[in-house]
Amino acid sequence: MPANPVPINIKQQGLLWFQPPYNWSDRQIAKKLDVSPSVVSRWRNELMNDGLLCEDEWFLKNNEGWSPEQRFAVVLESAVMSEIELAEYCRHKGLFVEQVKEWRTISTQAHELKALNNHKVDKVVKEYRQKVRELEKELARKEKALAETAALLVNSEDA
Description:
Order of helices and strands: HHHHHHH
Distance between the termini: 124 Å
Structural class: mainly alpha
Oligomer: single chain
Number of strands: 0
C-alpha cells in the first residue's frame, strides 16, 4: 500500500484536469492539488493505459501547444531573468527551463534569418536602382542623339 494514499476526490479532480478542455500539465496539477509530480504522472499513465488520454495529444498540448505568440511572449518575459528567476518562472508556467531556452534560440535564429533576408533584399533593391539609373542615362543620351538627328534632317531638307 502507498505510504501516503491520495484521497479519491483529489485524484478525480487531477484526472479531470488532464482531459479537455483543461489539458493541464503534470506540474500544474501537482502544484494545484499539492501532491507529488510523480503521483500525478502515475495518474496520467493510468489515463493513457485506459485509453482516455492520447499520449501524442497530451505531449503536443503540454510541450508544443503554445502558439508562436505565446512562446515569444515567454521569451520576452524571461529574457532578463537570472537562472533562479527563470526556474521559478518556468515552475509557475508549467514549463521546463530547456523549453524556454530552446524557444529563445529559435526566436534569435528567426530574427537573424529575417535580418539576413532584409540585407539580401536591400542589396537587390540597390542593384536594381543602379540599373535603373544606368538605363535612364542611356535613354537620355539616346533621346538627345535622336533630337540632334531630327534637327539635322530638318536642316538638310531646308537646304
